[in-house]
Structures are given as C-alpha cells and as structure tokens.
C-alpha cells in the first residue's frame, strides 16, 4: 500500500467534514430547524467529483491510498471516511475492480483487513470492514485465492501475532483516542488505557464472530458453487473458519450455522463434484462432528448417508480380467493375514507396490469406508440406525454399484445391537453370494471378512455360514475364491476350542475345495489356499488325519514343480509350513516316513537359498514332532545354514537383491534361535557335534552394522552365540586349546574394544554387553585367560566412559546427540546399559576370581561407591505450573540411579563372595556405602545390599567386626519397618533375615551379644522363600551347635520355637506335592524346595536338640516340660 499525496488526503478530509455537517443537518431537520446549505452542497459536489475522477483514472492507486489511510491514518475521522469510501467503491465496481488490481494490492487488502479485527471498532467502521472482506471473499473464494490469506483469522483470534505488532496496534488505538478525547489528568489516562487492554481479547472474539457470520451469508455461500476453481472450496472454507479439533468456545455459538453452510455447499451441484472434493468436505464435517456432535440434525445425518453411499458407489468399470488379477499381489495386507510374519521372515517384500493400479483398484474406496467409520464413531447410534435402513434398501437395488456400496459399508456401522440381527443380515446377503455381478459377490465375501475381525463369535454361531462359504469357494472367479480363503482363516481363530463346530460334510467340502485350488494353474490362488488350509488343520486337529494322505502328495508335487522359480517363493514357503503343521497333527509314527522323503528332496536341492531358509525355520517344528530322530538331518541342515550365514552382506543394502539376502539371513538366525531354545536343555543335545561350525559366521554377523535390518541380524547373532559356544565346549571335551581358541575368537571379534567404533549406538552397546555377560556365564569357571579378562575389563572402561559422555550430552540437551530420540527414554537405556556392565564384571569375578580380582582397582571401587552414595537432589519449586513436570523428571532420575545401584551391588556381591583377600582389604571402602543402600526406598536395591553384606560377613569373618554394629542395626531397622511387610518389600526383608543368619554364624564377635540377637533372629523365622530357606536352615543348624545356650534359652524357653522352625520344611514339602501337576512344573518344584543335604542336617540337629533336652530334663521348668513332653510324644508317634 502507498502513502497518498496531500491532495488526495485533503479530498478525504473534506468528504469527512461534509458528511459530518450533513449528519448535523439531519439532526436539526428532525428538530424542525431550517437552514440554508446550498453553499455546502456545491462544496461537497466538487470534492466528490474529484474523488470520482481519481477512481476512474487510477483505481488501483485509490485502493492503495485508502488502505494506507485505513491502516496507518492518525485521525479517526480520516480512518472512518477512508474505510467507508473503499467499501462503497468495491460495492459499486465489484469484481471488475478487484480483477484489475495487482496481486500485491489484493494480498495487502486481505492481510491488513483481517488484522484490523484486533482493533476496538465502532459499529460503522466494523460494518464497512466486513463489507470490504465480503467483496474480496466473493471474488477470491471461487478462484482459490482465499487460502493464501496470512495470517489466518484463527491465528489472530488466538492471539498468535508478533508481540511487536500487537503493541503497535495498541499504540495506534491510544493515539486515536488522544485525538478525540480532551486532555485529562494522568491518572485517568492510565485507567482508561488499562481498561482498553482488558477489552482487547473480547473485542477480537466479538469481531471474529461477526466476520464468520458475515461470511456465511447467502451472497458468499452462493459463490462456492461457481467458478473454475471449485476443487479449492474445502481449502477455502478451512481457511475461513480455521477448522481444528480445539476450536475456541465462542465458535460453538455459530457451529450450527457453519454446519448448515458446509452441507449447503456439499449439496450444491453434487453431480459435478469429484471424489477429492467430497473427501475434503467430509474432513471439515468430521471436525465439526468431533467438536459439536449435538448440532447435527436428522437432515444432516440423512445428507451424510446419501453422500457417503454415493461416494462408495463410484466404482470404476474395468475389464473382468483386470479386476480379477487385482489381488494377485501376495504382499497385500488386505488379503493376507500372515503378512507380518511372512514379511519379517523375508518371504514377501517389506513394502508391497501399493502404487500399482491393480493393487489399488478397490483400495481407492478405503477413504470412503474409513469416513463411514469415523462418522459412526462421532455421531453414534442415530447414524447407525439410518445407515442400516439405507443398507437394506440399497441391497435390493437394481443397480449393482448400489448393492456393492451397501455391502462395503456394512462392517462400518454394525454394533452389538445390529449384530443381533445377524441371521437376517446373513439371509439378505445370501442372495448376494449368487448375484449376477461378480464384484457384488466379491463384496459380500469382503464384508464378512471385515465383520469377522470384530464379530467372529456371533458369526460362527450361524449354522449356515460355513455352508455358504463352502459353496462360494467354488465360484469360478479366482478373486472370489481367494477372498473365501481369507474369510475361512479369519473365522478359524475363534474355533480352536470348538473343533467340532465344523460338521463333517462342511469339512469334507472345504477340503475338496482346497484340493482343487491347490492344483490350480494360477499361482496366487494356490498360495492363498494354503493359508486357510493351515487354519483348518490347526482348528480341527486330529479330524484332519483322514485327509492327510491326499494333501501330503499334493504338497510334495507343488514343491517339485515350483521350487526352482523366483515367482513361487511365497508358495514354497507356505507349503513347507503346511507340511510341518501336518506333521504335528499326524504324530511321529506316520510323519517319520514323509519327513525322510522331504529331507531327501531338500538334500537334492541344497543349492536353493530360499528352500534351505524355509527348512531351517521349520526344523524346530520337525524336532517337536519326531524328537531325536531328526538329529540325523541336523548336520546336513547346519552345513546348509552355515553357507547362508557365510553369505557376504552389503552394509548399504541399496538394491532389492541385497535386501532380500539380508532378510533371509535374519530368517535363518531366527530359525536357529528356535532350534537352540527347543533343544538346549535336552540331554544329548543333537546340536552338540555341529554347533562349533556356527560360531565363526555368528561372530561375523554380530558385528554387521546397519541401522535397519542389520539391528535384527546383530541382535539374533549375539543371542545365539553364547549357546553355540557352550555346546561347542561340550563337544571339545578336554581339548582346552580348542576351547581357548574359540573363546578368544568370540572375545576378539565381538567384544574387543577395537570393534566398537566411536559412533556405536546405545542399543548396540547393550546387545554386546548382554552377549558378553551370557557368554562368560555360559563358559563357567576357569574358562578365561588373563588376556581375555583384561579384554573384558577394557570393554568395561571404554563403555563406561562412553556412557558418561552420552549422559552429560543428553542432560545438556545436545540435539546432535539426541536427534529424534526422547531424552527421558535415552537416559533410561543408558542407565540399564551401565547397570549391565557392572553385572558383567560381577559374572567375570564369579567364574574367574583368581585372575580377575587383581584387576579390580581402587579407582573402580571408588567410582562405584560414589554412585552408591549418590541421591537425586531435591529441587526447589518456584512455579506451581511446572511442579508436575519437575516431579516426573526427578522420579525418572531417581529410578535410573536405582537401576545403576542394582548393577553395582551385583558386582559387589560377587566381589565379596569370591574376591578373597583383595575384597576384605576393600571393606573400609565398600561396606559403608552398601549399608547406606539399605535405607533406599527401592526394594530390589535393599535386597541386593542385604545379600552383599551377608556375603561380606561370610568372607571376612572376624575382620568384618568393625562394621558389625552398623550393619546389624541397619538390617534390623529394615526388617522391622512397616513397609517390609508389604508385598514389594517382603523379598528384601527375607534376604536381610538370611544375611543376619550368616553374620551370627561367621562373625565371632557376635558372641558378646548372642543372647539378645539370636532370639530376635529366631522370631523372624521361618520365611516364605523356599530357595533362601535352604541357606537359612543350613546356618541355623550351625548356629545351634555354636551357641546352644543362646538358642535354647536359659530356661529352654526357645526350644519350641526351634522345633516349629525346623519342622516347617515338612509343610513346605507337603504343599509342593501334587500328582496332577505336569512334568515341567514338577522339575521347577525340584529346584525350589529344601535340598536333601539340608534335610539331613535338620534331622541331625533335631536329634541334637532332643538329646540335649533329655540330658538336662531335670533343669527344665515345669511349664516348659509340659509343652516339650507333648511335642516329644507326637514326634515319637510320627
């Protein structure tokens, strides 16, 4: 906008004065006062004529000048007159004037007029401002020009303008007031200014509401149906109304008017609207439905239904061959419920070609169906009922597209009430199964597929449903057949516990249909038939046995015919999975012969990378079926899988071939993991002779670096390595040189710091640490050399340093380190990794204490102790609004410190148990912070601290004495505290009781206080933890012999307590006897029970107590004698 010259300003000023005089004249005429105004009229006519001449000769300059005066004018009278003149100019010239304006002037008018909404406006000023906006809106909306408006009205209303602009606007308002109002006292001016500032926001809301009401006027509304840019109308409406799911409350007052406007626009010229137009209009209506659902009238609901069904009916005509082949993509998630499993195993591409026209020919309706669903969710049952009524009507339509639309919509508005009418719905749909139009027949199956996901229980109750499916699967169209296959799979999931739900004649018909489909020349049809076949086998179980001979021969034929082609990748994988499933139902005796035939086929085609991957993945199932008999095939399979794992992989994985190879390697690693898990704990593990062949390729893959699929390859390699090394150790037996060579290879290639680049991410660090921990534990005692131990300790120091660096960077909000991650989550992961590296050193000490203990430096212990002492500082709270966020951060920090402390205490426990003289010498350094951990509020930290102190007492014996009182006091407080009897802390309490037992037994200085400490300790017995009870009973037996007088009491008052504690183990044993429990549970019970050597000690100590009582019978008080006599008599009977 351009500043006008003095001449134009004078014209505007004159016109303003004339108007003011004319207003005064009108007021006087009302009072019957007659004045002569002829001179004024001549004066006015001259000024007005000059203005008209300017509008004719330079219209754009006039608009620019007037806009300048409106926005930047210093006198209110001039601003009022300028906005009046511009409004009248636009009304008179209309679109002709706006069309002649430059884009720069048009944009300036749009922006500046909307900005004026923030001002305090007089009624006349506001009326003319809305008139200007209306004139431009009428012109711009049909041409798509309104969407360029910045800032949008909604932003202005919400007060999101620049602070400087806001202050400038207020300053201008104040200047205007200074011109109109006589000078006042300073205090009055300040009060007036404050009042105006308080009114700024309400004034904006008032103006915005008025603007929206104006834009909804029929004059503008009519423009939405005209012009060549009608496709932009939804965007224009969005810019006008500023739609969002959190509209300000004041917009609720005109919500009805907005909704009416949207429907009037939607209903206008509906035959000419495109699908995109309809979709975008519904996006706006959905926002209103979410914010103002009660404003939708029955008329609105009927209009929604009408448009949605019309949208769904817009089905493209296409040749039947093209439509039928539209489902040939096996990767389609819509028609493959095994999509994610097969994608993860590298059988199908991770991202199917969804841009392919054939793939998307029906997916183009996904938005329409989704919109159905969203409206039903937001507007509820009234819309559902109306839709159901329309469904019944359209299902009987003469037009196939309307029948198609009704079926496509059914699954989106069904609820539990409507599904009660499912028998009648199915009856109505039955006619569609025989519809003359193939796409309607397909839609009926599709509809049942979608319904079965949520209402399968109701559907399987229908007696006629499987009859209908069995009939439809014989449809001559391959796409309909394929959809029937998917429907069967979706229904089978709810029938696993109702295998007899499928009656014999239906099962027979289904199997006959599958038999025909599997022999179809169309590859994708055979692929899709295998999915429901597996579901049926898994559901009917042993009822499939009569059909097995027919199908196993077909499956072998499919493998022989198709295994050599790339196109048959999916088919062959599903065939092998089906064979393994058949074997599970047939059992070892029948399946052994066929598995031999199958494995001979595999041996003959060992060159096939894909075939071997599929076989290896299924090997776990084969082992489950035929057991050790399968071991004769394992060497062959391991050789084949080793070849797969040895395949060179490209780090970039830039092409599809490289990616598919990587996916096959990952699939092989998953298969190996399953075999290892199934056979690891079995005696005479069949993998023992060949596991060492896997170690080298696993080491190579464990260092494979790729942020995508490489993460999975690395993770599974690191998981499988320790088990394979352990099995290899068993195989090597006494050949120590081979063991050390293998262990060194793993350590140097996977764990050694030189393989940890500086950019190694935290997840990779965690995987490596976990693997190292598992590997050290699997190797057991004495498996490492000093060099190996130093290598692991080097890893510890390097990782610890990296963790400290990353933690500092994240806390300092370094975005280069944080990237797209969440700081809180990253800090959690770092804390877990730090805990794990301390645990790793603990395991190292446990199995290799002689060579590792000297490597535990004072600096390492100092740092660990400092972290044990650390507590999260309490922050001062200044801002109440931020209290919750600060509390959450503090809680997360505190939780992370507990995680780290737990790992450090794990190390300390092993150090105190196996560290010998070095550990004892470190007691002054480590015992105090461990005692301090007994007071934390985290139960597992207390538990670890209690265990560690018990181990230290057992190791140090009399040299533990300096800390005896402090430790006993802390343990006693911990045991006696009220929270120790809660579920969370009970385990910590019981381990503290056990540690006190160790202190009593092993620290001789306890003797001076034994008469007090021992009775208190006995008062806490017995405990619930059966495994820890073994240690407690063992210590109790030793303590009774060490301190018999203190255990019995001076008057033998503690003897009955001793008997009750000792005999408690019998109740534990009795509780664990259950003839009905399975073998796996029984084996677990054996571990968690009182051990035989402990029972033997308890029997011996019972005899010792009895002998002691009998030899001192005369010294026992009468009351105690009575209790003991009764007990001894019962014991004699037993």
Automatic annotation (TrEMBL):
Keywords, alphabetical: Cytoplasm, Protein transport, Repeat, Transport
Coiled coil: none
Cellular component GO terms, alphabetical: cytoplasm
Region called Disordered, residue ranges: 158-200, 875-894
Record-annotated Condensin complex subunit 1 C-terminal domain positions: 424-510
Ubl conjugation keyword on record: no
Acidic residues biased stretches: 159-180, 187-200, 878-894
Residues annotated as transmembrane: none
Source superkingdom: Eukaryota
GO annotation (BP), single: protein import into nucleus
Compartments (UniProt record): Cytoplasm
InterPro entries tied to this protein: ARM-like, ARM-type_fold, Cnd1_C, Importin_beta
Keyword Protein transport: yes
The protein's name: Condensin complex subunit 1 C-terminal domain-containing protein
């Amino acid at each position: 906008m351009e500043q006008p010259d003095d001449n134009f300003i004078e014209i505007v000023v004159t016109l303003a004065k004339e108007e003011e005089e004319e207003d005064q004249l009108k007021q006087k005429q009302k009072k019957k006062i007659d004045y002569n105004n002829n001179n004024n009229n001549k004066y006015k006519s001259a000024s007005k004529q000059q203005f008209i001449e300017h509008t004719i000769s330079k219209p754009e300059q006039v608009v620019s000048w007037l806009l300048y005066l409106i926005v930047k004018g210093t006198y209110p009278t001039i601003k009022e007159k300028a906005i009046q003149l511009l409004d009248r100019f636009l009304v008179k010239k209309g679109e002709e004037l706006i069309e002649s304006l430059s884009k720069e002037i048009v944009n300036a008018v749009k922006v500046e007029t909307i900005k004026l909404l923030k001002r305090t406006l007089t009624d006349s000023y506001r009326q003319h401002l809305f008139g200007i906006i209306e004139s431009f809106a009428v012109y711009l909306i049909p041409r798509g020009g309104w969407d360029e408006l910045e800032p949008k009205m909604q932003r202005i209303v919400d007060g999101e303008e620049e602070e400087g602009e806001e202050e400038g606007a207020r300053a201008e308002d104040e200047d205007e007031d200074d011109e109109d109002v006589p000078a006042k006292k300073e205090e009055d001016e300040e009060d007036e200014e404050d009042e105006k500032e308080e009114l700024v926001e309400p004034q904006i809301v008032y103006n915005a509401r008025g603007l929206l009401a104006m834009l909804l006027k029929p004059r503008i509304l009519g423009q939405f149906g005209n012009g060549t840019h009608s496709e932009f109308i939804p965007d224009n409406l969005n810019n006008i109304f500023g739609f969002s799911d959190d509209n300000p409350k004041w917009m609720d007052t005109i919500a009805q008017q907005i909704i009416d406007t949207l429907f009037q626009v939607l209903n206008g010229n509906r035959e000419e609207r495109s699908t995109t137009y309809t979709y975008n209009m519904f996006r706006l209506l959905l926002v209103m439905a979410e914010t103002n659902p009660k404003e939708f009238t029955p008329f609105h609901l009927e209009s929604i239904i009408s448009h949605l069904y019309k949208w769904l009916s817009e089905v493209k005509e296409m040749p039947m061959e093209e439509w039928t082949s539209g489902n040939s993509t096996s990767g389609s998630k819509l028609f493959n419920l095994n999509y994610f499993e097969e994608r993860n195993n590298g059988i199908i591409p991770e991202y199917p070609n969804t841009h392919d026209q054939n793939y998307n020919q029906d997916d183009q309706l996904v938005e329409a169906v989704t919109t159905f669903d969203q409206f039903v969710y937001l507007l509820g049952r009234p819309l559902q009922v109306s839709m159901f009524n329309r469904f019944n009507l359209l299902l009987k339509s003469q037009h196939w597209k309307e029948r198609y639309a009704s079926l496509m919509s059914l699954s989106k508005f069904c609820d539990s009430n409507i599904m009660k009418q499912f028998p009648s719905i199915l009856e109505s749909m039955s006619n569609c199964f025989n519809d003359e139009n193939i796409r309607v027949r397909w839609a009926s199956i599709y509809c049942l597929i979608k319904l079965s996901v949520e209402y399968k229980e109701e559907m399987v109750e229908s007696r006629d449903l499987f009859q209908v499916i069995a009939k439809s699967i014989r449809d001559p169209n391959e796409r309909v057949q394929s959809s029937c296959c998917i429907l069967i799979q979706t229904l089978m999931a709810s029938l696993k516990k109702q295998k007899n739900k499928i009656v014999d004649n239906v099962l027979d018909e289904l199997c006959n249909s599958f038999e025909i489909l599997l022999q179809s020349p169309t590859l994708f049809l055979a692929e899709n038939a295998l999915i429901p076949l597996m579901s049926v086998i898994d559901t009917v179980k042993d009822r499939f046995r009569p059909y097995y001979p027919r199908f196993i021969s077909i499956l072998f034929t499919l493998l022989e015919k198709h295994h050599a082609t790339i196109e048959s990748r999916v088919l062959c994988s599903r065939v092998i999975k089906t064979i393994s499933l058949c074997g599970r139902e047939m059992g070892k005796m029948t399946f052994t012969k066929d598995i031999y035939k199958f494995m001979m086929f595999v041996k003959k085609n060992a060159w096939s990378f894909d075939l071997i991957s599929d076989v290896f993945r299924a090997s776990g199932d084969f082992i489950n079926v035929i057991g050790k008999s399968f071991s004769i095939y394992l060497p062959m399979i391991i050789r084949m899988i080793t070849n797969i794992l040895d395949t060179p992989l490209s780090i970039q994985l830039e092409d599809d071939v490289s990616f598919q190879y990587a996916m096959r390697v990952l699939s092989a690693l998953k298969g190996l993991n399953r075999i290892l898990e199934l056979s690891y704990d079995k005696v005479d593990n069949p993998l023992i002779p060949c596991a060492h062949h896997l170690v080298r390729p696993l080491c190579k893959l464990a260092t494979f670096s790729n942020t995508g699929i490489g993460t999975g390859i690395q993770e599974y390699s690191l998981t499988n390595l320790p088990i394979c090394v352990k099995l290899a150790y068993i195989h090597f037996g006494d050949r120590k040189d081979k063991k050390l060579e293998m262990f060194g290879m793993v350590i140097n290639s996977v764990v050694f710091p030189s393989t940890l680049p500086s950019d190694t991410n935290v997840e990779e660090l965690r995987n490596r640490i976990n693997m190292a921990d598992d590997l050290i534990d699997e190797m057991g005692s004495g498996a490492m050399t000093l060099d190996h131990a130093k290598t692991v300790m080097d890893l510890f120091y390097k990782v610890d340093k990296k963790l400290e660096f990353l933690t500092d960077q994240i806390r300092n909000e370094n975005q280069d380190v944080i990237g797209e991650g969440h700081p809180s989550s990253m800090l959690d992961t770092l804390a877990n990794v730090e805990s794990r590296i301390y645990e790793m050193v603990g395991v190292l000490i446990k199995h290799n204490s002689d060579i590792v203990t000297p490597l535990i430096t004072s600096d390492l212990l100092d740092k660990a102790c400092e972290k044990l002492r650390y507590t999260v500082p309490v922050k001062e709270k200044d801002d109440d609004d931020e209290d919750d966020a600060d509390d959450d951060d503090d809680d997360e920090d505190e939780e992370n410190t507990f995680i780290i402390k737990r790992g450090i205490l794990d190390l300390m426990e092993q150090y105190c148990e196996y560290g010998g003289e070095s550990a004892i010498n470190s007691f002054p350094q480590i015992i105090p912070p461990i005692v301090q951990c007994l007071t934390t509020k985290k139960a597992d930290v207390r538990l670890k601290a209690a265990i560690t102190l018990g181990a230290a007492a057992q190791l140090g014996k009399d040299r533990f004495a300096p800390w005896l009182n402090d430790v006993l006091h802390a343990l006693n407080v911990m045991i006696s505290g009220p929270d120790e009897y809660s579920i969370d802390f009970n385990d910590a309490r019981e381990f503290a009781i056990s540690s006190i037992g160790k202190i009593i037994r092993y620290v001789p200085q306890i003797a001076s206080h034994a008469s007090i400490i021992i009775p208190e300790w006995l008062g806490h017995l017995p405990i619930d933890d059966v495994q820890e009870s073994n240690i407690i009973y063992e210590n109790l037996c030793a303590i009774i012999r060490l301190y018999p007088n203190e255990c019995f009491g001076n008057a033998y008052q503690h003897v009955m307590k001793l008997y009750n504690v000792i005999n408690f183990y019998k109740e534990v044993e009795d509780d664990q006897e259950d003839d009905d429990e399975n073998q796996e549970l029984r084996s677990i019970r054996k571990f968690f029970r009182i051990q035989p050597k402990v029972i033997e000690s308890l029997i011996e100590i019972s005899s010792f107590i009895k002998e002691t009582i009998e030899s001192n019978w005369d010294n026992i008080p009468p009351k105690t004698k009575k209790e003991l006599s009764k007990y001894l008599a019962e014991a004699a009977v037993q």
